[in-house]
Amino acid sequence: MDTLTISTPLGTMLAKADKNGICLLDFAKSNETFISDNPLLLTLATELDEYFEGKRREFTVPLAPVGTPFQLGVWGVLQRIPYGETVSYAKEAAMLGRPSAVRAVANANGKNPIAIIIPCHRIIASVGGIGGYSGGVWRKEFLLSLEAKHSGQ
């Protein structure tokens, strides 16, 4: 598996890819630097730059997240939420076809291995609060603000 560190407005991110696609995109927890010439990782870095510049709303780089069948289903639902829109955890559970599984869905969101591209930042609390975010609420607020600014909402 190849690894690359990517500088973003939210701090350094760590990306990993195998032959099938991106397996990990997370906020770096150390100062280690990784360099790679893996074309998938280089495409990811370019697409992330375009996203943060407001020039990209959808990512094309293939994904290969590893999780349980339930988690993969939840992460699939997340990828259907349009850029600049938010839904509640309850709505996400309903979209999955498991309306009573709100807590399990929220837990799966927290285990999302591919931040931003699998957009768990677009999920908000049913009572109108912003909800949590494993990368930090301030990052979630930044991402939601960025998307609102570039989606005209």
Brief account:
By secondary structure, the protein is an alpha+beta fold.
Plain-language structure description:
The model has no long low-confidence stretch (mean pLDDT 94). This protein has a 3-stranded antiparallel sheet with strand order 1-2-3, with helices on one face. It has a two-stranded parallel ribbon with strand order 4-5. 37% of the residues lie in helices and 17% in strands. Helix 2 (69-78) packs across helix 3 (89-96) and helix 3 (89-96) crosses helix 4 (102-110). The protein is an alpha+beta fold.
Key phrases:
alpha+beta; about 35% helix; about 150 residues; globular; 5 helices; two-stranded parallel ribbon
Biggest sheet, strands in spatial order?
Answer: 1-2-3
SS strand fraction: 15-25%
The overall average pLDDT, rounded, is 94
> Strand pairing plus helix content: what structural class?
alpha+beta
What is the C-alpha radius of gyration, as a whole number of Å?
Answer: 15 Å
For the biggest sheet, the summary is: 3 strands, antiparallel
The coarse overall form would be globular
Span from first to last CA?
39 Å
How many individual β-strands? 5
Amount of helix: 25-40%
- What's the tally of helices? 5
Quaternary status:
single chain
Unreliable runs: none
Q: How do the helices and strands follow one another from N- to C-terminus?
A: EEEHHEHHEH
